[in-house]
Write the structure tokens for this entry.
Amino acid sequence: MWGSRCALCLLCLMMVCCDRPSGGRKSRSAPSCLLWVQISDTHIVQKGEDVERENWLKEAITEINRLRPDFVVVTGDLVELPSDEAYQNYVTIMSELDAPLYSVIGNHDDNSAANPADYADLYRKYVDRSTYYSFDWREYHLVVLDSVAPGKHSGTFHVPEDQLDWLKKDLSKAGDKKILMFSHHPPTGERFDVHDYDDLRDIMKDYNVKALYSAHLHGKPLEEFIDNTYFINTGATSSFPLDGSELGYRVNLMSGDWMWSACVKLGESAIQWKQLYPREE
Ligand SMILES: [Fe+2]
């Protein structure tokens, strides 16, 4: 249910703890809150080859900058086909974002179709030297996964054993922090060659994973609550929407035990929040 009653709570919350002074990054007073944005499947090509797509992403960045989020996560398929020119164009456009940016690799970002040894080397060159990593943001522990099968441009889900071993060690050190996870592929259902995620899901069950945010489907927003975790899927920001979905991004607000999420259509400022936690049965 889209929580209309939480709109007032959110307004109060944002006034109290999300106020930023002009000219400064942010101002904090207890209770703290976290406002962050998920974008995805930007599928950028080389400069000038698809101006409409570039403009969609620029429009999204302008709207997101107005929200002044703590950070932005882009959940994969940054480029349509990996090349120096496409990555350079993507990086140039994203440089207009006024917030820290965390990236997740998608199947379109892998350039190892001809040689597995080349896995993600363009991604590492232009975006991030690591394809999986974690970081803390106050009381949250955020984990970025690499779910891409090298050389499988079609989009097979794949989290190898060594990454799962790293994940177990990483989560075991999270303590009482609330865990948020990110992967390009959704580890639910069996769409677009996505399956074989049972090992990942088994590990997640042992920890306080509040939500896993994914993309890949280019479809309508999904918020599935399974095994005490929200599996959240978000559509494309600047490429091709499927299944009647629309281009946009997801805004997330968290404070203490409260979490809300909302998908915003590109060009529309209205935010209709959905309360995730505490859960409304
Ligand atoms: Fe995609």
About this structure: The pocket of fe (ii) ion is lined by residues 41, 43, 77, 106, 108, 216, 218 (CB under 6 Å). The longest strand covers residues 248-255. The first helix runs from residue 6 to 17.
